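Example 3.2
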Amino acid sequence: MVNLIDAVQPNVIKTQLSDIYGFSEQLAQIPDLVSLTIGEPDFPTPEHVKKAGMAAIAADESHYTATWGRIGTRTAAANYLKQRYDVDYDPATQVVITNGVTEAMYATLATFVGKGDEVLLPTPAFPVYDSLVELNGGKLVEIDTQPDEFLLTPERLRATLQEHPHAKVLIVNFPSNPTGRSYSADQIQALADVIAETNLVVVSDEIYSELTYTGRHVSLAKYLPDQTILFNGLSKSHAMTGWRIGVAAGPAPVMTEIAKVRELMSTSVMTAAQVAAEEAFGNGMDDAAPMRAEYERRRDYVYNEFTRLGFACEKPQGAFYLFAKIPERFHLNSAAFCQDVAKTVKVGMIPGSSFGAGGEGYVRISYATSMSNLEEAIRRLQIYSDEH
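Structure, written as tokens:
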């Protein structure tokens, strides 16, 4: 009898999916759990965007679009990136609409990464990057940023490049999932100065750019346009995770190659979602502002409360995550701690070990939930703390 598993490619067998969703689903079986696990906006998609999508469906806009995306959507996305982050892209040749940033990441890494290619990744980091590098046969080189307050410094990047002079790709994500940390214009410039001395392909995932609390987000692509593939989209800024709208932008010759891979994955992105995205990019420039203000209020609350409970943490500068160090008095690793807290006081958190080097000993909590949920979680964590 044929065993089909024997025919599966080794890279697929070796690839480990993120345990974030699996862990979250496991905890979700606990009755009355206050879940701070999944990073998804708890706001509705803006009304004018929903109406645009519904109008497109009503008008029978239900057919294939250009594989790169509708030109109207690409133009709106390019204008949005220009106005918000001062980066210039030709919508006809430099912008591709994707099914979320995950598809953009897969298409890009499949374009650049082959067997044995080294990919640099500052960690802790969202584990999908690791999985996609492995799936494409690359070799992940983790850069532990924990000693540097969870920021990649020029000095640490230089040291890593000395140890790995043939590294091909650098992946950066800021504001960061899971730490919420981000970079000032001066810090981005300093990193760009180091990168400019290399042949690195920079993949810059800036999906949380509109959820920045310390002034306007500064894109790495502004300083290294010819060396950077920029990712952005609407999932976080416009609470559109289920609409699956991502944007990949970069030098024209390279985007042609990335677009080939993306076309083979799903032909095109849902037409009505692209129409809604055009509305969001074009007339929803400031839609994120009220959500960002509420996230910042929650950020301040959870940061102060976790600090009071003895969890050391760097104050997030963006996104909607807090990455907190587990007090030593609990004597548990991150996975055991999260399971014990979920079991005893019914608060769900993600173990820091899920995010690579520098993550063990920490927990990630998402404050993309109501203030009442956050207050109840803190009340329960206080009980847990008092009992230990």
